[in-house]
Design goal:
single chain; alpha+beta; Jelly Rolls; 2 domains; five-stranded mixed sheet; 12 helices; globular
């Protein structure tokens, strides 16, 4: 069924030597909405589930965030949060403040997909409020792709500004692009948001990621991290357990056990998931024909590929063929 020409070859050398960087090479934004919010107490924002990621960076004064499980935690100035799969959550000046749907607040649209919001009363106009830099990120991958599916609902990092000194400059650059309204500003803001998201993920991984599994846990294991990076960089290769084990100098059984205990999936299942989600991207974003995608992945027949695709994705390839690129809605 698969092209065996690369079966006995070793994984390619990582382009950067950094597994996290190599894995994140596949995570890009199709669109972004960016906002600057100045909030005066009391305030509370409710965000329902959405098919996009959300990020927040607290620039001034603390606020609170309610996670999908209902627990609240405090976010201080310099803290950042990424909600990679758009799980429902809330932000408020205090956990006991009633929340209102974000869409219920009045925002000022600066330009397409860029807005600012300010809440204040005349009596409180001189009292500093919470300054939030926030946004909605539309990744090029669907939420079930291993890159996103194995992330936690909420990724928190404290004192991001201290550990990622570039963050304030990124935010300033985003604000500057917004104000200047030059040709290509939207694309530049999206690329800066790419870097912002990667910075939050990197800081979260480096400073401890709890009991997380998946690629996030694996990148902290240098040997496994290189294996995962190779899989993500070349999803079209016929990765066998033997090939991957050989790249680590481990036995087939030893590698398989170590991989499964760290990642939470067998090597074969993980590889298949990455390959089929890559196929979905080729179908939707690159608009390739099903036969071309099947051939890229080494399948001898379109029918065999379609069966494997449906097992993983839940729908046949024809369902995604020619699907439109995402359009970021206006505020």
């Amino acid at each position: 069924m698969l092209d065996r020409s690369s079966k006995n070859s070793s994984p390619s050398v990582s382009p950067t030597g950094d597994p996290l960087t190599d894995i994140l090479r596949g995570l890009r934004l199709d669109g972004v909405q960016y906002g600057r919010c100045e909030m005066k107490e009391p305030w509370g924002l409710e965000f329902p589930a959405q098919d996009a990621a959300r990020f927040y960076f607290v620039g001034q004064k603390a606020c609170w965030m309610r996670m999908p499980n209902g627990d609240w935690f405090e976010m201080k100035a310099g803290d950042a949060v990424l909600v990679p799969r758009g799980a429902p959550h809330a932000l408020a000046s205090s956990p006991d403040v009633p929340t209102t749907q974000f869409k219920g607040y009045e925002v000022t649209e600066i330009c397409k997909n860029v807005y600012c919001m300010r809440t204040e009363t005349e009596a409180e106009s001189c009292v500093p409020g919470t300054l939030l830099f926030c946004g909605t990120m539309y990744f090029n991958l669907d939420s079930l792709h291993p890159l996103l599916g194995m992330m936690p609902d909420v990724m928190r990092t404290h004192g991001l500004e201290e550990h990622e000194p570039s963050i304030p400059h990124l935010l300033e650059a985003m604000a500057r692009e917004i104000k200047m309204e030059r040709v290509g500003s939207a694309g530049i803001v999206a690329r800066l948001a790419d870097v912002l998201a990667a910075s939050i993920i990197r800081s979260w991984v480096e400073r401890g990621c709890g009991d997380s599994k998946g690629w996030i846990a694996a990148v902290r294991d240098r040997e496994l991290g290189k294996v995962l990076a190779a899989i993500h960089l070349e999803p079209n290769r016929d990765w066998s357990v033997e090939t991957l084990a050989r790249s680590m100098g481990a036995s087939r059984s030893g590698f398989a056990e170590r991989f499964a205990s760290t990642v939470g999936e067998t090597p074969a299942r993980y590889v298949t998931q990455v390959r089929m989600h890559q196929a979905r991207q080729w179908l939707t974003h690159d608009r390739l024909r099903i036969a071309v995608v099947a051939n890229r992945l080494g399948y001898e027949s379109e029918a065999a590929f379609s069966r494997a695709f449906k097992r993983v994705i839940g729908a046949p390839p024809s369902h995604f063929r020619g699907e439109d690129h995402i359009e970021v809605p206006n505020i």
